[in-house]
Structures are given as structure tokens and as C-alpha cells.
Amino acid sequence: MVSATFRFYEELNDFLAPRRRKQAFTVPCAQAATTKHMIEALGVPHTEVELILVNGESVDFGRILADGDRVAVYPRFEAMDVTPLLRACEHPLRETRFVADAHLGGLAHMLRMLGFDTLYDNHFRDDEIVAICEHDGRIVLTRDRELLKRRAVTRGCYVHALKSEAQLRELVERLDLARSARPFTLCLHCNAPLRAVDKASVLDRLPPRVREHYERFSTCDQCGRVYWEGSHFRNMRRLLDGVLLNNRPSGT
């Protein structure tokens, strides 16, 4: 049996037992335990980790711990360039395609509003989500930390907030999504791209009041839905503008 001293930084502390937060602590480790094994045994999903330092040296998840090792574990960096260091994950984490678990339907809907390809079905089982992540390289969104600990989940985000709007703000800030958002370019129902259409081509699918008051329309070729800039659109626009304006880089 060996022991190692761990220190977790910033929001990673939220996953730890209260007595271990924001301080160094020493724990016993199984023989030949890796950094990944111990980090997750302490409650932190590997998908939340960007950088691991053992005795001041950057390592990956496969590093076997030795007696007396000092391990510093950092979350994703937004403002600090860690490119010269060895990141814990082999590939970059910041893809912009998602798969959301069954409890995050509201968040999935809002991400589609922002133009981010987001798969969601309230009947998705955990095994299906893992398979989608592995096959498509999507980021798993969930409040289930055990799901994020699965070996096949290489990209994922634990969503801390409880309400959809707060969840959206959290993700936009954490993953720096404001610069790549393309609002109202995806169908909110089926996640397919929208295209602009002439009013005449969708006239037979419009309610009478919409025919009278609106001129600009888009449609989804997959499900046939038609969208226009009515009161619901304006309410969504205000919500999204509030999220994006507070997260845009200065000078843009």
C-alpha cells in the first residue's frame, strides 16, 4: 500500500467530501493505482479534469502513483494557455456537439436555439449516451457523475445548475461558447439545420394571423416545421442575447 497527497483546484472541489475541499490531503492508494483511478475514487469525474501535476510534473491519466507523490488536479482552463503542458486528455475537449441525458431536455432545447448540435431523447439510456459519445465524439452533458466516470466517455461536462437558463449560462461560460454560437439555425424539435424559405412556399402551413403579420420564414426539411419571428422568437432572442452578451470576449 502506498499513499499520495492530493490537492484539487477551483470547481473540482465541489465533487469532494467537505473536509477535503480547498486543501491538501493524504490518502492510501491501491498498488499500481493510476491518477485516473484515484481521482475518480475521490469523486471527481475524469471528464472534468484538464491538467494533472505529480510532484510538479505534468502527467496523463495513466501515471501510476508512487508512495509520497504529491498530486495537483486542475479543471478546464478558460483564461490560461496550458498548451505547452501535457493535458490529461489525449484530444481537445472543446468540441461543440453535445449529447444530453434524459434530465436535461430544457438545456438541450436552449443549446439548439444557440445553434449547437445537441442530441437528446428523454428515453436515452446511459449505455446509449456512452455509445453516442464514443462514436460521434460528442460532449456528454449530465448531472450524473457516475456516467462521466465511464472509461468510454472521453468528453463530458457535469452540469452544476438546476434550472435550464442557469445551466445554459454555466455552459456558455465554461466552454466559451459565445464566440461560436449561431442562434436560430437549428430546428428546436429535431436538431436539423433550418433554411430560409419564401412565404408563398409555406403559406398553406401558416395560421391566418401569421400569414397577415409576418414575412420572413425558415423551415426544417426533416420534420417540416415552419418558424417565424413572433412573440416566442422575441422572448427567446432576449434570453439568448442576455446570455451571450455577458460572455463575449472584450472588443467583440
Describe what this molecule looks like in 3D.
A hairpin with a 5-residue loop joins β11 and β12. Strands 2-1-5-3-4 form a five-stranded mixed β-sheet, covered by helices on one side. Strands 7-6-8-9 form a four-stranded parallel β-sheet, sandwiched between helices. 27% of the residues lie in helices and 20% in strands. The protein contains eight helices and twelve strands. The protein folds into three domains: 2-75, Beta-grasp domain (Ubiquitin-like (UB roll)); 98-184; 194-240, no CATH class. It starts with a strand and ends in a 7-residue tail after the last helix. It has helices at 35-41, 105-113, 126-136, 145-148, 164-174, 199-202, 208-213, 231-245; strands at residues 2-8, 25-29, 49-54, 57-59, 70-75, 98-100, 118-120, 139-142, 156-158, 194-197, 217-220, 226-228. With 252 residues, the chain is α/β, with parallel strands linked by helices.
Strand content: 15-25%
Major β-sheet strand ordering:
2-1-5-3-4
Task: Please tell me the overall pLDDT.
Answer: 87
- Low-confidence region ranges: 78-83
Largest sheet: 5 strands, mixed
The string of secondary-structure elements, in order, is: EEHEEEEHEHEHEHEHHEEH
The count of β-strands is 12
Radius of gyration (Å): 22 Å
Helix content: 25-40%
- Number of folding domains? 3
Structural class: alpha/beta
Distance between the termini: 54 Å
Apparent shape: elongated
